[in-house]
Amino acid sequence: MLQRLIIQNYAIIEHLEVDFSGNLNVITGETGAGKSILLGALSLILGDRADPGVLFDKDRKCVIEGIFTVRKQQIQPFFEEHELDIEGEQVIIRREISSAGKSRAFINDTPVNLSQLSDLTSFFVDLHQQFDTLDLGLSEFQREVIDTLSLNAEVLHTYSIGYAKYLSTQQSLANAIQLRDDSNKTTDYNKFLLDELVEANFSENEIEQADADLKVLSHSEEIKNTLNRIYYQLEEDEQPILQTLKQLQSSLQSLANFHKDIPSLAGRMQSSYVELQDITQEIERLNDQVNFDGAKMEQLSDRLALGYKLFKKHGVQTTNELLAIQQHLQEGLDNVLNLDDKISQLEKELAQQQSKLQQQADAITKRRAAQVTPFEQKVNELLVQVGMPNARIKVSMNTTALGPFGQDEIVFLFDANKSNHFAPIRKVASGGELSRLMLCIKSLVASKEALPTLIFDEIDTGISGEAAKQVGIIMKELAKAHQVICITHQPQIAGKADAHYFVYKKTENQKVTSHIRVLSREERIQAIAQMLGGEKPTAAALENAREMVMN
Question: Is it the case that residue 434 has pLDDT exceeding 80?
Answer without folding.
Answer: no
